[in-house]
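My main concern about presentation is that the manuscript never shows what a single data entry looks like. An entry of this sort, consisting of the sequence and the corresponding backbone structure tokens, reads as follows:
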Amino acid sequence: MRHVTPDRVPVMCQLALGHYFLHAGQTPSDVWFDSETFVRVLAEFQQRYGFDGFLINLPGRPPDWRCYLADRAKTAEGERLTWQSGLVTEVPPDNNPHTFTADRGPLPRADYNALNPDDSALLRLAGYVWNTWHAPSLWDIPPTADLADPNQYPDWFTLGLRITRSACPDASVHAEVFSPFTHLMELFGYQNGLMALIDVPEMCHRLLSRFSAMVVAQVRCWWPAAPDAILISSAFAGGGFISRTMYREFVVPYERQVVGAIREFGLPSYVHTCGAIGDRLDLMAETEVDGIDTLDPPPLGTVDLARAKAEFGRRFFFKGNLDAVNEMLRADDATFERAVRQRLEIGMPGSGYILSSACSVAPHVRPDRLCRMVELAERYGRY
């Protein structure tokens, strides 16, 4: 990550939560909602597959989260958790849980036509309070709290990382925050979020500034728990979603603020953006981030690793580029191994490459295939 030549190319895939649900032998809702279970599973899979590190891609949970439940039942589709608030979380066996209203309707989103961007309770509506914490009753910060203040976050916010640091001292353990742009999209919903960029751009800038301060506060929360790097999840900022012009206006200045906060602590930063980013690597460089994750190749994205390495290989470290669907999930063994060796040949010269799936490893990717990635890196990725 710092362009220091290692003994071999590191291997570190982000696994879809559904992969853990299928293969961990744990109840999926416990993996999702219980910090101790979650990080124990992450550490187990890191060791099982031989990865050099792993990403903690959920925030901590309150240890007493079960006290918020009114009912918990198995269903034909997995599990159903009913909260005392009346909300319902459906937990499938191979995919992320989803929370609904009591009548199975979608959770509310903000209306930008009737929104006061200075409302002190606004940040509680940010989508990743809904979609990552999933049950707002778990979020015990008062509505009037200033989420730009690190002291307002509960101690359990960093619980998973703190447990992991003591349990996995030799692994590279990364924390995650969400891009201000992602929070903006989640606030309104993605269709209305895109319309807001066009209809009320000044309001969007005011909100992005507030979200940036909130994300910076979360970076400051993570730091005392000693992550080895921090990932900025900015999944929906690729060319299939917004143009270069919009990326420069609504993403670059705000992610730069987050990167600056990460850099204050001397930590490497990298950004996860899915899909078509081959046309905006130069703009991503303007955020001053250290590395780029996913690098989806065609047909999922637009990144040619050889070209990206030639043009930006000294500017960034790269992580990914293995097509998680066509080269990992659906491919035969020969095609899969050929793809892995090709990425090693392209990525390893000059260091600065982490062998990984482009996006998350799909739930149904065979576990032995992930072990084989490390075996191939041991054999063909030596410096």
User: Anything to note?
Assistant: The mean pLDDT is 92. Residues 227 and 361 are 22 Å apart (CA to CA). Residues 17-64+110-380 form a domain with the TIM Barrel fold (CATH 3.20.20.210).
